[in-house]
Amino acid sequence: MGKLWQVEETVRGASPETRVAVRQQTSAVVVAEFFALWHQTLPRISGKSKLAEAIRYAISRGAIFERFLTEGRIELDSNIVERATRTHSSSAATAAEGTGRPSRHCCKRQK
Where is this region: Disordered (predicted)? Predict the structure, then answer.
């Protein structure tokens, strides 16, 4: 995934057409390698393992995952959106102001 994120850094802010062109030249190869690896790995591991479950999930949603290769308006992931919408107060529920320790509220036992 690191290779894909590197490509995305180079095309961030570019036109959708440019993003698609660069992705087709670079990211498409990486994505194809991922799917080839998953298809090779799946028969060699326990079908009940978490890894097998994750691989089957990824393979079953391949068309959705690959959509960013042909649509320049789609982000590879939603991290940018998540960071933009995350409130700064989210840490207040888990840490007492300025102490670095968990707040009493988050550590109360639920009855």
Answer: 85-111
Q: Which two three-digit tokens encode residue 48?
A: 């009940």
pLDDT digits (tens, 9 = 90+) for 21-48: 999 999 999 999 999 999 999 999 999 9
Instruction: Kindly report whether the global pTM for this prediction surpasses the value 0.85.
Output: no
Contact between 4 and 76 under an 8 Å Cβ cutoff? The reply is yes
d(CA 19, CA 88): 31
Instruction: Please report which helix (H) or strand (E) contains residue 66, including its range.
Output: helix 62-66
